[in-house]
C-alpha cells in the first residue's frame, strides 16, 4: 500500500486547497456549511480516481482539479441532504450540518454544492464530460430516492439492495473514473473499462461500509455501531442473517424495522446474531469478489505508477477498518 | 396580443406533454410531487422563450423540447425547495407540495427535477448548451441563497434588491433565451442579444410580480395580498414607500420585519400607505423601462412570427394581472 499512500499524500493537498478555495467563494449563508462538510475528513476517493484515470491514460495537463473536485462536491451535496432527511446526528464523528447550521442553510448549501459541481464540470467546454456528470448526478439522485423509499418499506430483497447501493454509491464512483478517462480523451472502450472498474469498486466500497456498520466500534467510523439496524435500514449483513433464519423471525424483524418498534434489547440480540454468524465478514467476502472484478478491468491500461495505485486502491477498499 | 396567444396555444401542448412524460419516468416516491408542481399551472414562459429564440434564428428541427423543458423543470425545482424553506402554504393557489406530500418527498423531488433538467440539457452533446445550463443553475442557486439571507436581515437597499431579483428570476430567464439561441448555433453577438432581452424581461417580470403582491386580490394570483410584507420580505413597493417616508418610520418598520413583530393592524396600515402612494403602480413603471430595454435587444433579429411574439411577450409581462 506504500505507493497508494505516497500518491495520496502527494496529491491531496492540491485537491483540498482547490475545494477550500471554491467553498470560500460561496455566499456567507452557506459557506460555513460547505466548509464544514468539505473539512470533515472525507477520503477524497472520487477526485483521486478521476486524477488516476486521467494520468494513467497519459493526461499531462494540470487543469484536472475542477472536474476531479466536482465529484467530491456532488458527494458532499448528497450527504447534506441525506443527513437532514435522515435526521442524522453525526457525520464522520462530527455533529451533522443541519444541527449545527440549521435546515435552511443545509438544504441551500446542498443545492449550491450541486450547482457548483455541475458548473465546475462544464468549465472544460467538453460535451462528453458534461454528459457524464449530468448522468452521474441523475443516477445519484435516483439512488438516494430509492434508498429512502426502501427504508420506508424495507424488504429482504437482495436484488433491490444491490440496485440501491449501485445507485447511491457506485454510479458516482463510476462517473469519477469515466470523467478521468474522458478528460484524457479516452476511446469508448477505455472509458467503459474505467467505468466498470469504478462501478465494481463502488459496490465493494458500499458493501464494506455496510459490513463496518455492524463491526466497527464508534470511535473508528464516527458512527454508532449497528446504526443502520437502529435506523431501520436493511443492508447485506441483515439480509444474509435473514436468509439463514426462519420465516417467523424474518417477518417479526421486518415489522419491527418498518414501524420502528425494535427495542434496544431486540437490537442487541440481532447484533449478537450478526456477530455469531459472522455476517459482517461474509459481506466483506462478497465485496472481495467485486474488488477482483474491478482489478480485472485494469488489464488494458498501460503499466505505471497510476496502474499500481489503482490496484492498491481496490485492495484498500477491502482492508479498511473505518 | 393575438399572435402571442395563438403561438402559446399552438406550442404549449407539446411542452406540457413532454414535461408530463418525463415526470412519469421518475421514481414513485417523488413522481406525484413532480406532477403536482408541473401541473399547477405555470405560464411556461421559460420553455417558450427557448423555442422562440431557437426558431427566430432559423432552427427548424423538432428536438427543442428537452432543453426548453429543462428550463421549466429547473424553475419547478427551485419552487419546491423555496416553498419548503419558506414554510409557504400555497403555490399558485394550491396547497404547497411539502404540506401535501411531506418534506422528504419534496426535497428529493427538487433534487430529482434539478438533476433531470441538467441531464435533459446534456442530451444534445452541445458543450455550449451544457455550460449555459450549468451557469444558469449556479446563478439561480446563488440568487435563492441571497434572497433568504436578505430576508433574515432585511434592509431598504435597492441595489441589493435588484441583485436578488436578477439572481433568483432574471438569470434563469436569460438562460432560457441564450439556450434557444445556442441551440440554433447563434453567433456570440446574437446569443448576447437574446440573453440581454431575457435578463431585462426577467427583471420586469419580477418587478411586476412584486407589484402584484401588493395590488392583486388573492383569487387572481393564488397568493394572499401583501403576503411579502407579512413574510417580512422587502420588495420594491416597500422600498419606494420607505424612500418617501421619514427615518423613524423606516427604522421601526425594518425592525418589525426583521423580528416578525408586525401586528395585523400594522400590516394593514402599511398596505394602505402603499395603495395611497400608488407604489405598486410606480413599481410597474420601473418594470416598463426594463420592458423597453428588452424590446430594444430584438433589433437585430429577423422579422417573422417569432419576433412579433417576443415583442408581445415583453408587453404582456407589464399588463398581466396575475
From TrEMBL, chains A, B:
- State the Gene3D superfamilies in the record: Farnesyl Diphosphate Synthase
Alphabetical list of PROSITE patterns matching this protein: POLYPRENYL_SYNTHASE_1
* Reported cofactor(s): Mg(2+)
Tell me, what's a Pfam family for it? polyprenyl_synt
Instruction: State the InterPro entries in the record.
Output: Isoprenoid_synthase_dom_sf (IPR008949), Polyprenyl_synt (IPR000092), Polyprenyl_synt_CS (IPR033749)
CDD domains, alphabetized: Trans_IPPS_HT (cd00685)
One of the GO biological process terms = isoprenoid biosynthetic process
The GO molecular function terms of this record are: metal ion binding; prenyltransferase activity
UniProt keyword annotations, A-Z: Magnesium, Metal-binding, Transferase
**Homology family:** Belongs to the FPP/GGPP synthase family.
- The entry's protein name is Polyprenyl synthetase family protein
State the organism of origin.
Answer: Pseudodesulfovibrio cashew
Which taxonomic lineage does the organism of this UniProt entry have?
Bacteria, Pseudomonadati, Thermodesulfobacteriota, Desulfovibrionia, Desulfovibrionales
